[in-house]
Design goal:
Layout: E1 2-10, E2 13-22, E3 26-29, H1 30-40, H2 46-53, H3 58-63, H4 65-79, E4 94-96, E5 101-102, E6 112-115, H5 119-128, E7 143-145, E8 151-152, E9 157-158, E10 167-168, E11 171-177, E12 193-201, E13 203-204, H6 205-213, E14 226-234, H7 235-238, E15 245-250, E16 253-259, H8 267-274, E17 285-287, H9 296-299, E18 308-313, E19 317-323, H10 337-349
Parallel strand pairs: 6-17, 8-14, 9-19
Antiparallel strand pairs: 1-2, 1-5, 1-14, 2-3, 3-4, 6-7, 10-13, 11-12, 11-17, 12-14, 15-16, 15-18, 18-19
Length: 350
């Protein structure tokens, strides 16, 4: 199943909902559909049943586990081809994709961990930053934690940070945790993955080079924006993502075609390792890291304001984001690499 978080505008304001994507063109409001189905079945408390089984929030839905997945299948079958179906209170259940706004499928993930699981990508980019790939990388999975409050969904515009002159994309697959747990064995890790989506780790490369030289990991180079979406494909449908074809387009031009095949540490290993003596929670995000050839830094091609960036991952879909313009009033422009070097030279000469 493909599950999305979407927003609808009503006379009393916008409402965020969770829906099942049908053929990539329509979306079924699961909570409203479940409520209508329960009414038809004579449930004495249809609203309470629907809110429990199919809450309009992805994390809460994922917490319901297999019971919710079974109910979703029943609801989709019940809706069938009835495109004009309405709920008992006149609410719409079936929407055309163009009538709604897709949001990040997980709106408020508890933790965002982004791994680095592709050797060739790391050697290419670390080499350009003057950083060696450590031997420890071959012994255990490595990750950093990103900002879970700056996540952008399908078709959202990404603000260009005023402090960078080299903006880049990073093409990744992302696991969404469903069943919480700790000390999860590798052979049971997939039981804890709700599904997979696409992650674009937007990066300010000139800033990242300086931050990495301090051995503290990325900070402002990464925390301004993460693209996530367009939806989650549940594990029961997608199966393994170990050998998935992927591509990146900028303004319709293919910049790179690659796959996830060369992943050093697979998702089962990432989940198991992360959960060692630590609780993984529903809604946590686990990024694969950039696939080989999956960023502009590797091919010396850079984004510009106004660019449309599209990441396509077979078996999942296409995540699209427009690159915005820097805010000329932002104090960030004073933190550009060239500006800071200039000021330091002036200070030395004074």
């Amino acid at each position: 199943m493909r599950l999305a978080t979407f927003r609808v505008n009503t006379e009393i304001g916008p409402f965020d909902r969770v829906g099942a994507v049908i053929s990539g063109e329509h979306i079924v409001d699961l909570n409203s559909a479940c409520y209508s189905k329960k009414c038809e079945e004579g449930d004495p408390t249809p609203r309470e049943s629907a809110d429990f089984l199919m809450p309009p929030d992805m994390i809460q839905l994922a917490k319901r586990g297999e019971r919710a997945m079974s109910e979703i299948r029943d609801v989709i079958s019940w809706v069938g081809e009835r495109r004009d179906i309405r709920g008992p209170d006149g609410e719409r259940i079936f929407w055309k994709m163009g009538e709604v706004r897709l949001l990040p499928p997980v709106l408020k993930p508890p933790v965002l961990r982004d791994f680095a699981a592709f050797e060739t990508h790391l050697k290419n980019t670390f080499g350009k930053m003057g950083v060696a790939l450590p031997e420890a990388w071959y012994r255990r999975p490595m990750a950093f934690k990103g900002n879970p409050t700056t996540i952008f969904g399908q078709d959202a515009s990404i603000v260009w940070p005023a402090y960078t002159e080299k903006l880049d994309y990073e093409m990744e697959i992302c696991a969404v945790i469903g069943k919480p747990g700790s000390n999860i064995p590798v052979d049971r890790a997939y039981e804890h993955i709700f599904g997979f989506t696409i992650l674009n780790d937007f990066s300010a490369r000139d800033i990242q080079t300086e931050e990495m030289s301090n051995h503290t990991g990325p900070f402002k180079a990464k925390d301004f924006a993460w693209g996530l979406g367009p939806w989650i494909v549940t594990t029961d449908e997608i199966g393994s993502v170990d050998r998935v074809e992927m591509s990146i387009k900028v303004n319709g031009d293919v910049w790179s075609s690659t796959s996830s095949e060369a992943m050093k540490w697979n998702f089962a290993e990432l989940v198991s390792y992360t959960s060692t003596d630590e609780m993984l929670n529903t809604g946590d995000l686990i990024g694969s890291g950039t696939v080989n050839g999956g960023c502009g830094f590797e091919i010396d091609r850079w984004l510009k304001p106004g660019d449309m960036v599209e990441i396509e991952v077979k078996k999942i879909g296409t995540l699209k984001n427009r690159i915005g313009h820097p805010d000329e009033k932002s104090p960030g422009k004073h933190w550009k690499v060239a500006e800071r070097k200039r000021l330091m030279e002036l200070q030395k000469g004074s």
